[in-house]
Design a protein that fits this description.
8-stranded mixed beta sheet, alpha/beta, 5-stranded mixed beta sheet, single chain
Amino acid sequence: MSILFLNRILSRIFGQASLRTILVISMVLPVLVVLGLSLSLTSIDLGDAIVLGFAGLGFATIVALAIASWILEPVLYLRFGTQTLTVLGESYSSDRVGKNTKSSLDPDRLLKALAQLRDSDRSAHPLLSRRSDELGQLVGGFDRFVEFVEQSFVTLVSQKEELQHQNTELQHLDRLKDLFLSSTAHELRTYFNGTIGMAESLLEETSDSPSDWQTQSLLAIASSGRRAYHFINDILDIALLKEGTIELQIQFLDLRTIVEDVLQTLQPLCGEKDRVEIDGIPASLPLVRADENRLNQIFYNLIGNAIKLTSRGTIDISAQQILENDRPSLEITISDTGMGIPQEKLARMQAFFERADSSIVYEYGGMGVGLAIVGKLVEAHGGQLQVRSTLGRGSQVTFTLPISSDGEFTVDGEISKAPICRLPVLRNSESISNPIAPLNPTPLNSNGQPPVKVMVVDDDPIHVRAIVNYLVSENYEVYRASNGIEALDALKENFRPNIILLDLVMPGMTGFEVCQKIRQTFHSHDLPIVMLTVKNQVNEVMAGLDAGANDYLTKPISKHELIARIKTHLRLSNLNSAYSRFVPSQFLKLLQKDSIVDVKLGDHIHREMSILFSDIRSFTTLSEKMSPEENFKFINSYLSRMEPEIMKNRGFIDKYIGDSIMALFSGGADDAIRAAIAMLHKLVEYNQHRKSIGYDPIQIGIGINTGSLMLGTVGGPNRMDGTVISDAVNLASRIESLTKEYGVSLLISHQTFANIENPNKYKIRLVERLKVKGKSEAVAVFEVFDGDPPTLRDAKFATRGIFEQGVLFYYGSSFRKAADCFEACLERNSDDRIAQIYLERCRKYHIT
């Protein structure tokens, strides 16, 4: 008590002193006592000195104990606190990790202990809270830490209780979800049972033989119903498999019969995919011990996925007898050459609602339950499931089933492998030689026009059959491509549909990718694309429109809506085609405009292009002999033969001027020259046609020049036109007029000649040096005689060297030498009209 009393006295004395000051005092005090005793020995007797010494030592001891208590009290307090927190922390940690599941930590006990730690010693030693030395500060910090831990734990306990409540709610919702799925699936299964039954009864009970179209439609209905029925069974089994309450009706089954039934059900899924063969299972295999419905479910999922993921290649089904854990079993393997699955994602695929890749949603669809259900069903039968796959090369799924002991067979004590036999080919390959053959060949309409061609790009033949049924009444001709690659290949082979119905989910390439590739060649105004999908999410609609689609339809598709959308887009496409007859699409592209509505007065570009002028010789004389109606028929007959040759060589017609044609080529001089030669060859065919109906042949002249020009729009607010402004146009017209003077078919300027990639590809000779008004330098003119009749062409080619030498002599004023050259040319080619003209010019200057 005296020490405690002294401690309190010291607390009041040293309450504001630092720990260092207290330690100094505790060291100095005994020294002072000893010095006092030493001094007292000299003035008092020995007895009094001894008593006084003991009294001093006792006082020093009491002071030292009090000081020690002053120092140790907070240290012991901190020690007790840290030990308490350590024990409680270890208990809480073991509770969290589940090490002490039988006696989990009581949150109330921990809170009570923290409160006691905070209050007990503080009430017993209230002076601790008023100390300001280093130990007092340490105790104060520890108290604040205890309060923080207490508050944090209160928050943690509250969050834990909230999480437990939420988990309970989620478990309740999960049970409600399973109940809802089960109830809904049961109802849907009833409806599909009725649909399948009605379709099959119509097939069997029709008094008159149904047409092939009706038979295919009824089979498609029945098959689609069975697919939905199997999918509903998968949904029903999810809850049972999760709870482990699925019941199996074990019996002995013939594996081959099961597989053949599944293949028959999946037949409509195959459509027209190429070269897929199914290897069978021999009838000599022992019977398997399995539930018939569950075994059907296993094969339906595995084979169905293999078909879906294999656009081309093979699907093999094989079986062999093995010993698994000293038990005879049957090992069944289903392998395909499809897209394959990345190795790192195989494990995830055996969980419910998991896929190997999110992109597979767009490429192949599905909910991601098939493989998970198969794995659980195989385990329920006592077997094992293994999946091996290589990305881009295919997958192999192997599972085992127990077999009947009465049916096992061995050879020389070894397990025998079952031989392979061939089942009927699963997929029809009749249309592979012509993948864009029409599904419903349609005759010409009443106006003699070909039917509208609709390309349906969809890997599901049942969906395609439904679309054919919708469109057959509208006299549309439907073509099918089973995936995006087939569609792109068909377009590359110059197949041109009027509209494309493009499924979003397809093997190999998604609808987004296919649409983007088509738009690299065909503008949305030229070839409308309507995307089809079972989803109607805003982000997918926007992605489809951004990829270049014109419209979006959600499955199941309404017949009337589909026909209305197709007619609307065909009308818009035809309207744009009509505009392009007046304003070429190439003209818009050069102006960097998507549509004619974007063109404004004054829009222009500055480019280097080749200009082609052509004209019919003596057209005025021909025209006077014909009526106005005959004139238009003649001009249109001629122009309709010339225009395609220009278009084929990447040119476009800027304008028709009566019988004359002005065409522009932005790709290069070679395009213009090839187009001109093709026009001359087409003219030969046209003259043969005119001769056969009693008309005289015609001749044309073509002039080509290459140069810089301005292409744009001119006019007023209510009437504008596209035109070309450049003296290069005038020179092309001037060169064309020279063809009449020289009696040749095709002349080009030296600018065009300089832009030819390889002049040796053509038969060309120098003809003239033309002085053009406004130009300081003469323009060299060359004749291209590839389009001349073969005899004249060969003769000109044989005399080309001496002819060009004569032209050089002529412009060098060596007229005698020039005349000799031209005479030599005429001796070998008397029909060379240009050589005759040059010889007459030489004689005009009295050179003989």
